[in-house]
Amino acid sequence: MGDDGRHMTPDEFRAHGRAVVDWIADYYERVGSLPVLSRAEPGDLRARLPDHPPSRGEPFDAVLADVDRLILPGITHWQSPNFFAFFPANTSFPSILGELLSAGLGVQGMLWATSPACTELEAHVLDWVAEMLDLPAAFRSDGPGGGVIQDSASGAVLCALIAARERATAGGSNERGCDGRLVAYASSHTHSSVEKAVKIAGLGRENLRLVAVDGRYAMRPDALDEAIRAYRAAGRIPAFVTATVGTTSSNALDPVAAIGRVCREHGVWLHVDAAMCGTAAVCPEFRYIHDGLELADSYCFNPHKWMFTNFDCDCFYVADRGALIRSLSVLPEYLKNRATESGAVTDYRDWQVPLGRRFRALKLWFVIRHYGVEGLRRHVRRHVELAQRFAGWVGEDDRFELAAPAPLNLVCFRHRGGDGVNQQILDRVNASGALYLTHTRLDDRLTLRLCVGQTHTELSHVAAAWDRIREAAG
Amino acid sequence: MGDDGRHMTPDEFRAHGRAVVDWIADYYERVGSLPVLSRAEPGDLRARLPDHPPSRGEPFDAVLADVDRLILPGITHWQSPNFFAFFPANTSFPSILGELLSAGLGVQGMLWATSPACTELEAHVLDWVAEMLDLPAAFRSDGPGGGVIQDSASGAVLCALIAARERATAGGSNERGCDGRLVAYASSHTHSSVEKAVKIAGLGRENLRLVAVDGRYAMRPDALDEAIRAYRAAGRIPAFVTATVGTTSSNALDPVAAIGRVCREHGVWLHVDAAMCGTAAVCPEFRYIHDGLELADSYCFNPHKWMFTNFDCDCFYVADRGALIRSLSVLPEYLKNRATESGAVTDYRDWQVPLGRRFRALKLWFVIRHYGVEGLRRHVRRHVELAQRFAGWVGEDDRFELAAPAPLNLVCFRHRGGDGVNQQILDRVNASGALYLTHTRLDDRLTLRLCVGQTHTELSHVAAAWDRIREAAG
Fold first, then answer.
1. Domain match, B102 and B153 both
2. Same domain, A410 and A344
3. Is residue B90 part of a domain?
4. ipTM over 0.85
5. Residue B285 CB: number of other CB atoms within 10 A?
6. Pairing with B432, which of A402, B123, B336, B398 sits 20 to 30 Å away (CA)?
């Protein structure tokens, strides 16, 4: 099997494919009992791998056995129901099957013509998602805007910034390059991807202005307005604002409507990053988080965080696709084709940084069809309820306090004993393997974060986590 | 199954997983008989999809049946042995299984700590690949450089440009932004991703200088030298050169050694893009394509083109990882961890545009272990031989001519009857469904391209393609 370097046959693939499918099913049956944070030390895996690639092929069974023997000890189990760290990157069996089918088809959706279904399913499912979240009509593909799947919220904010840069300079920065006059704005709690994008796009880190936040760690629209006016008065070009619906530190909800009014007044592009929390808007009772979104020029959220779709799947919407396409389109001879020239189709290569793209809409389509909108609502509500239960327990224990509002599925909390005690709790619970928590700093105090979003997290897991945390504080 | 919105169980996943595995095996058994270029018209798929997402979940069997009914007619079959268009994006069963396992594990490798095996396997396998291609020692992880998997050659060239920009300005462009003085160089045949990167990075399209090519469509080092001197004399900052090993139009091989000497003399970053052809260097007899690569600062090639690994998998190497990391690193509090602070680990988030990343090294590891280095050589040699056979047939037919040198697996050719006849051939063969060819323009003449790289392409497919082409010319 493979030792002579020949291709695996379809029948061999059937057999090995079943073995991998069974491996994955087994994995999900036991993942809750594995230490969540890998206990590997730096270099552990590399020391066990052969120094040189094999000259001759090896049997697939040997490779799969090495996954257990070599890889598994080096895995931090993001799909453990005891994973409460960062934001989740959850998934589901239907999503895994969608990814498998995408890999099997192996199509390249760079142009409509290179697989029409890849482009059309994506545009269609993104319209479905816009309906599911009740997003503004401008983001749908039947108007001047539309949606596309990006690799991540980082990719989305970079594309939004590029489009904003072009709009602010009437195409000048695309042609002649940046000249140091453009200014971008975000709050001091905005995700690091915005700073990264500002650097990549040639604006310069100094030209990202961090706007002050209020007591709930949300951006202050008055401070934004002031900062835009000051820079404009100094001859600069305020071009781009990122508002966040659910910051990574504390899930703060920037006031999109008030920020949007400021942006409209000054003609500045507003991008709204709802990477995790956007999913909550599938439930009507949580849609308030998007109030004012009709004032945004672009928006993204990640089904690969909380909507049971495996990484990578970021849904990115623009109200005016022309601005995006003008800034990213390059059409060499070897990509020209009749469909593109007809103007009747979308070529998604012009909506993203890379040229190539795989068929990521399949997995999102599988997820939505498997769960249905009502099913997704049910699971999102369950996660929010679990986080609220946890927040309630924190509130009832005099040794602990809530460190920020917990509107949805992230709870920021701390022991009242100070940074040392909180670091000890963090280290102990993570070393225990029973759960995985990460931290942030709020008002310069070490703060623990517990985020409920893994697909299979139930009340028992959250209750056990709380027990373990209290124990670690003792 | 799913109609109540509940999660698919592991046992249901076993059953549905087998069905998808079998679907894929069946697909490969029949793909050679399907029309290669999709016959769908714009809007065909969208017209058949429900306007609204389902409220309640649907059985998985219904979803899979819709893949046949709705999706398949809209697929252009990149995995058909009769696919000769663009550059290939081939794959193999071991790669598909690696992607499946990666989706099943669902880990996020943004930090070493968030799954040590994800980072360490990637670093290790990229060292294996460097050995397989006999790349310069500086690109290996045990020195100042190292390798990382990017989504595409577009992502790689953008990262290279960002690092080059920073080196040329001693960090100034990262901090203060671009100022219009930086200049990048490529040949007039360089891939469109370079122009896209130059625009994204804020240099401006006007500041990408297209260097003249010689009669073989390869960059002229003397013209590059002259262009660098002219801009430097004018007070500009030449910062970045892309040399291509196998251009997309005609597979021209830019002379890396001579270009590298020019770049060294002027202190300009040299990036070498060997997106498709790099794979050929697995065979010692083809390694001449990389002559002079030790003068390059960065290099990339795509196993997702010709090394039987499904998209996305671009191997990107830098000789000095510090330059790359300094330009892309942002470390917010919520990502800080002891392993990062120890300095003993690699955090690949600082080597790429996005923060998140999935476990792509698994599929490349599976491919190398399944085939072994000798097995990969065998298949690459076979593809080159098939292309050379085709080039021979073209040379023997008085009606046709070779339009450019065909050193490896791409043949550029044309009918001597002019653009009209060649367009007719292209339209007829693609409409027939029997094969898929694309075109370019060389010396402003329409030129047909036939690229041999799909995993299962054999002599019979190439011979049938040639028959069909001659017939279409009649």
1. yes
2. no
3. no
4. yes
5. 10
6. B398
- Please report whether residue B92 resides in a domain: no
Contacts of A313 in chain B (CB under 8 A): none
Number of domains in chain A: 3
Give the pair of three-digit tokens for residue A11.
Answer: 């029948």
* Among candidates B86, B123, B370 on the partner chain, residue whose Cβ is nearest the Cβ of A58: B370
Please tell me whether residues A61 and A185 are part of one structural domain: no
Is the distance from CB of A259 to CB of A219 less than 8 angstroms? Answer: yes
**What is the domain extent for residue B431?**
372-473
Chain B partners of A436 at a C-beta cutoff of 8 Å? none
For the record, the structure tokens of B419 come out as 């653009």
Residue type for position B229: R
A461: Cβ contacts below 8 Å, ≥ 6 apart: A32, A81, A82, A435
Tens digit of pLDDT at every position of chain B (474 positions): 445 789 999 999 999 999 999 999 999 999 999 999 999 999 999 999 999 999 999 999 999 999 999 999 999 999 999 999 999 999 999 999 999 999 999 999 999 999 999 999 999 999 999 999 999 999 999 999 999 999 999 999 999 999 999 999 998 888 999 989 999 999 999 999 999 999 999 999 999 999 999 999 999 999 999 999 999 999 999 999 999 999 999 999 999 999 999 999 999 999 999 999 999 999 999 999 999 999 999 999 999 999 999 999 999 999 999 999 999 998 888 888 988 888 889 999 999 999 999 999 999 999 999 999 999 999 999 999 999 999 999 999 999 999 999 999 999 999 999 999 999 999 999 999 999 999 999 999 999 999 999 999 999 999 999 999 999 998
The reply to whether A141 and A274 lie within a common domain is: yes
Q: Which residues of A touch B45 (CB under 8 A)?
A: 116-117, 120-121, 124
| β-strands B445-451, B410-415 pairing | antiparallel
Looking at B334, B366, B398, the residue that finishes a domain is B366
Give the best residue of A45, A79, A87, A93 to mutate against chain B (max B CB count within 10 A). A93
Question: Is B22 within 8 Å of A7 when comparing Cβ atoms?
Answer: no
Let me know if residue A259 belongs to a domain. yes
Helix (H, G, I), strand (E, B) or coil at B113: helix
Residues in chain A within 8 Å Cβ distance of B423: none
B186 lies in the same domain as B129: yes
CATH number at residue A446: 3.90.1150.10
Q: Answer whether B115 sits within 8 Å of A38, measured CB to CB.
A: yes
What pTM value is reported for the model? 0.98
What's B142's domain CATH number?
3.40.640.10
Instruction: Kindly list the residues from chain A whose CB atom is less than 8 angstroms away from the CB atom of residue B113.
Output: 37-38, 76
Segments of A286-418 assigned E as strands: 298-301, 314-318, 400-402, 410-415
Claim to verify: residue A169 and residue A231 sit in the same structural domain:
yes
Tokens found for residue B326: 């300094």
Angle ∠(B285,B291,B296) on CA atoms, nearest 5: 140
- For residues B192 and B329, state if they share a domain: yes
Q: Check A117 against B440: CB less than 8 A apart.
A: no
Which of A337, A366, A395 represents a domain boundary (last residue)?
Answer: A366
Asked if residue A82 belongs to a domain, the reply is no
> Inter-chain contact B372–A26, Cβ cutoff 8 Å?
no
Same domain, A28 and A111: no
The answer to whether B34 touches B77, Cβ cutoff 8 Å, is yes
Sort out which chain B residues have CB atoms less than 8 A from A312's CB and list them.
354, 356, 358
Mutation for B interface: A200, A325, A335, most B CBs within 10 A: A200
Mutate to test the interface with B, among A1, A3, A6, A7 (most CBs of B within 10 A): A7
